[in-house]
Design brief:
- The structure is a homodimer.
- Chain A is α/β, with parallel strands linked by helices.
- Chain A has 2 domains: 2-26 and 191-389, Glucose-6-phosphate isomerase like protein, domain 1 (Rossmann fold, 3-Layer(aba) Sandwich), CATH 3.40.50.10490; 31-187, Rossmann fold.
- Chain A has 14 helices and 12 strands.
- Chain A has helices spanning 12-25, 40-47, 66-75, 93-100, 120-132, 148-155, 176-184, 189-204, 208-222, 240-254, 282-287, 327-343, 360-380, 392-403; strands at residues 2-5, 55-59, 84-88, 108-113, 139-143, 159-162, 229-234, 256-257, 264-265, 268-273, 292-301, 350-357.
- The longest helix of chain A has 21 residues, at 360-380.
- In chain A, 55% of the residues are buried.
- The model of chain A has no long low-confidence stretch (mean pLDDT 96).
- Chains A, B: Catalyzes the reversible isomerization of glucose-6-phosphate to fructose-6-phosphate.
- Chains A, B: Its EC number is 5.3.1.9.
Amino acid sequence: MINRLSFTFEDEKTQKKAFKAIEKEQQSIGYYALPDQDITPLLKYCDSISDTIDTIAVIGIGGSSLGAKAVYEFLKPLNGLTRKLYFFESTDPINITNLLSHIEFSKTHFLVISKSGTTVETFSIYKYIYSLQSDPTAYTFITDPDSPLETYAKEINSTVLHLPHNVGGRFSVLSTVGLVPLALCGIEIQALLNGAKEVKESFFYDGYLKDTLLKKATFYAKNHTQYNINCIFAYSETLKYFCEWYVQLWGESLGKHQRHSAFHVGLTPIGLIGPEDQHSFLQLIMEGTRDKSVTFIKIEDFHDNITIPDITLPHLEGLDTLNNLPFSKLINMQCDSVLESLEAQDDIPIDTIILPSVDENTIGSLLYYYELLTSLVGELIDVNTYNQPGVEAGKIILKKKLNQKER
Amino acid sequence: MINRLSFTFEDEKTQKKAFKAIEKEQQSIGYYALPDQDITPLLKYCDSISDTIDTIAVIGIGGSSLGAKAVYEFLKPLNGLTRKLYFFESTDPINITNLLSHIEFSKTHFLVISKSGTTVETFSIYKYIYSLQSDPTAYTFITDPDSPLETYAKEINSTVLHLPHNVGGRFSVLSTVGLVPLALCGIEIQALLNGAKEVKESFFYDGYLKDTLLKKATFYAKNHTQYNINCIFAYSETLKYFCEWYVQLWGESLGKHQRHSAFHVGLTPIGLIGPEDQHSFLQLIMEGTRDKSVTFIKIEDFHDNITIPDITLPHLEGLDTLNNLPFSKLINMQCDSVLESLEAQDDIPIDTIILPSVDENTIGSLLYYYELLTSLVGELIDVNTYNQPGVEAGKIILKKKLNQKER
């Protein structure tokens, strides 16, 4: 992947300090090491799942589903996948009923993913599905070692896999949480990790991404009160769920009380898809308040060569300039045109990420790039990037409501 | 629908002035009158489409697709729909190929929707599909009267329907643009309009929504520099595309140069879905910068009574409080819990919209409510709510690129 910044930010001292902090963080934060893991045990587990299984269903929410979904939806159109993948995330009864209508129990393996083993959404859904499919071999549980969920799973004779140490949900896509469902669908998880590893090495060992990531992170951090909204404008439908993953990663990591001040800070993530959102959100970027940065993401090679045919429509001859143009070329021209129109504004920070193609290596790089960027910005704006204390209050209120006799 | 505000804002003079301006706008802005239209001609047109057609495909982007998509996706789980509806919006070749794989040409009718008849996305896709299906009776064109597209369509003997006068794309869901695809799928469009009409009358004739809408709009406008991000937190998967429609409506209408100042202004829309986004964006709302308002939307009756079964999981007995709870009740308890946790913060403006059920009337009300709110806020922050000059620059650059020999 290539990343070009149209802004610059030189502050060597701050950048050096941030880099050192991230280097040190590798000792305590688990996600940094994930690209280097040995996947042999995971692949062995995957081999144990029968070929008669044609559907994998993840029961999990947030960090337990968004990463695998991002990768799966990016690669799905390639048609090389061996199994279908569904995600039970919502307690919306309409959604549960609808998803179940797509599933044949005899051909489905369920992955129940919960760190703590107490996630309300996951276990409401699990209980419901368990009442319809009570065969314990239809389930694999992914949880923390020695959690009550592990004890339960062992007692009913289901398989248990462990979450790695010190990897939070939103940084867990390259761990068991993301790799297992993806590998079960025929995705080359080693290539995914290799892509991540390239970015990791480029950053930590003075590659081209070190300078870029440090510049971008210090710019975002320095200007976090002015440019407090960070848009991704991705020119491919296949990146829609990558954007949802980004929204969780960025929002939940960077929306915090500062560690050493009394202030609430936060950078707001927005995921946009081109060209559709040219007809939606673009006006706001172009003429609205100058509070947004924009990162364009484009794909160089779509592996698809459909072309606009050489047809003249009478009275609409103006459209002939489109003739004989491959759609992949058109969509990238649309991206460039919008990018140039925003760059001409001079007060909107823009950068571009160019992905070489639609494959495992590429999406692995992109995920790891955003994880590193998030860690850097979190360090620079003085927050704890890895916790989420703000979601507890709602959980406590829900627990009280559930305990009340009168529901 | 019910709308409860947890904030208040009394400024009778400003509210009166805004109301008068909106009352007057009815003379020049077409969408206000849409709930009162006679749909007989539209229904007659729909009857002319053969029963052998089981799929409707809209070729259109932005305002030509988002409204129908919002309504269709809201009502789809009800299972009463008579035809499938697809949307060709993107120039992404992977997306086009994928959508076409779901379509059988002999059973599909295409609706080509373009006001001007020059939309690049729409006509690239149309040309491509036309090269595969050249039967003119497979297409209906929806465009402005006397546009070059109308001339073209008549020349090839396709049906033409007109867009109403003075209705912009993002306000067009209750016009031909939205009503035709929806009616063709068996959706009761009169009930949709009736829902809108209830909101319209409540607002213009001193009903309960007049006071609420004016309070909310003046609060948003007055505080638009502090609370410049307006989140919808909708507790149902079925409202996901309503959120996308809202993002276009709000962002493209309210992100502008002010009419009587030198300033860029803008309110940034965010669409969230609960409970999933409790595990994503909630942390940022709860502990991040105080720049966000939140509107919770919940559905009282999901027409679905699946219930969490009375199962105790050994070692996970703490989850027994979930037993025997209908999912519809759980999801609303989750909504109330998050709402209460945010209200306790005191500096986050919150309101709640309660929708009685999943039906045409309900979604019609909700759409019109948001159109009125947008018009009011636009008037109050001194922008032209109905244009989108900021998207032109990119179009001009693209045109230049397309005209260059070397592409």
